[in-house]
Amino acid sequence: MASVILKVTEGCNSNCYYCDVVIKHGRGGSMPLDVLERAFERTNEYLEHHPEDHVELLWHGGEPLLLGPDYYRRAWEIQQTTCTRTQSRIRHSIQTNLTCFTEEFVESFRRLGIMAVGTSYDPEPCMRGPGRERDSDTYNRLFLRAVAILERHGIGWGVIYVVTKRSLERPIDVFHFLTNLRLRGGLNFNPVLIYDEARRDVAITPEEYVEFLGAIFPVWWAHRSRFPDVEPFKSLVTNIIDGGMSLGCGESGSCTFHHLNIAPNGDASQCGRSADWGLLQYGNIRDRSFDEILQDPQRHRLRERVTLLAGRDCAACRLWELCHGGCPLDAWSAHKDFMHRSEWCESRRGFIEKYFEPVTGRTYTPKGQLLPF
Amino acid sequence: MGHHIIVCAPDAGLLGRLRGRAVVVRVPSLEGLDGTVETVERAGVLLHCAAVESRHPLGHLTLQDRWADIPIALGVPSLGRVRDVVRLTPLIRRMNLRVVVPADSAENLTGLRILASLGVACTAAPGSGPIPWAQFTDLATYALLGLVPHGPIEPFDYLATHYDPDRRTDFRGVWFDDPTRFVHMDGSGRFALSAAELAAGQCAGAAPEDLDSLDDSEMYRDRLDAWRHVFLRKDGCASCPGWRICLGAFEAGGSDGCRAALAEVLDLVERHQATAHKGRRALWPA
Description:
The complex is a heterodimer.
Chain A: E1 2-7, H1 33-49, E2 55-60, H2 69-82, E3 90-94, H3 106-112, E4 116-120, H4 136-152, E5 156-163, H5 171-181, E6 185-191, H6 206-222, E7 229-231, H7 233-241, H8 255-258, E8 259-262, E9 267-269, H9 272-276, E10 281-284, H10 290-294, H11 298-311, H12 328-335, H13 345-360
Parallel strand pairs in A: 1-2, 1-8, 2-3, 4-5, 5-6, 6-7
Antiparallel strand pairs in A: 8-9, 9-10
Chain B: E1 5-8, H1 12-16, E2 22-27, H2 33-43, E3 46-53, E4 72-75, H3 82-94, E5 97-102, H4 106-117, E6 122-125, H5 133-145, E7 153-154, H6 156-162, E8 182-185, E9 191-192, H7 195-199, H8 218-224, H9 258-275
Parallel strand pairs in B: 1-2, 1-8, 2-3, 3-4, 4-5, 5-6, 6-7
Antiparallel strand pairs in B: 8-9
């Protein structure tokens, strides 16, 4: 499945402390309808050429709901006219802070088939919110109001929690707070990624992330039937205990084959972060098809990275199949070069060896899978 | 006609305006029970339950056979002497009655266990003092995991039958304090969504007829969503592991220790649900 990130706006109504706004380029633009229409045409073209494949359109920003309910009504109409025979193979999802969400979005979401929403939340005061002071009280009230609307209409939602320095004191409280908000989980703990010195006060090390997860994991493991859907724990259970394979884009080693990001002006890039950083630019969807973009020669570099790491940095790592050297953008952030493993590899290894395996009593055995291409 | 059960005093004038509706009538003493039932029947309202508040321990009371079919929540401050309670139990067990005892003393929590062991349905209710949480969780353990037959003990029995991991569970209905099921009405017909709100004058409607449109009102919807406000603060009940079965029921009392107790009760409820329907091991035929 091709994963297309539609960055429909770079504008945002929140001033989250850990957002990497400071290094973003061209902030503030939104995707005009003619570019949106072109994106649907390209989607249709791709699906016509790949009759067995699907496309996931991830509405992203900035804050994508800033464009208002009419924009999404129009998006559905465009899909109706441009993807007549392929629309059943288009999956929509959205990542939003929900603070603009109202009843008026519900019908458009339903038409587009968005039955679950990705969002994020932080109970820590003044971490998220509008304005210089980050009015988290206003943010949280709007967020909770939106969640009530979603639940009333049977629309699911999942929440990303960004682990910062301020989270480290009370991991169990954070965990219970979030699982009280989302009873069965639908929860993902991500480490904060800080790229500038000004906000180092909330940055955490890979070791601190391990300890945060390690404090929560025994509680989750003992009660996993109560809140089964908590990441990264659930995926590790799938990969290490259940014999399945569930890897995110940063761990799969295969993002190069099927991810692309479309900026508001139609510029294509590898993903949201590469677009923000001006890396891995693949031209504009006005001029290039998705197939051309997905076969761009720059992507070879990412494929070579996996081969290189498998024989060099990660050659002796028994967890290679769970990680594949991590996200290339992490490597670039630390080394200004993709050809290194991510520093967050250490957190994955640390968590598995220090907490996951001892608590579960299960040891990971590599499956001996080939490289992901 | 609205589906809410109305909690009110046995005021003949008010009951006359509630024809066809279900009521919980608060009766100040057992002596007033016969008269209340007569008033209720004359008014044509449906008696969900007579909530009788006695000032005397259970063992001191005289119960009547003629009350056997009246649904009664009998509030008592304590049990009194066990031998007096035992004397009453054959009749109590024939009655449609739950004994409601404040859970604010270790003695009462032990008393509830004794009552249940006698086959009497009972309820641990908030009292005027703090709850001894260690004894509270002991009672929950007995109620949920005890293998010897015993009467149901609320709110644990409610949790055992209603807990659903996909939903938040509000057990306060066992104390008639659940806005999805009960409203509290004064003599003029004004009603509120809890006893405390009625006492504070925070009314949801001015007359019984307003109940019919209550479900459609935005105010009502907001009130049912009020539990979400707990998530505006990072501390407090929001981070309690037992919150999903309590929703802050003990927060107002500034209760110490409820956090660990409710977390344990939640574990017990889950254990009960996991094992309750499993067949017991078949032994050799006796």
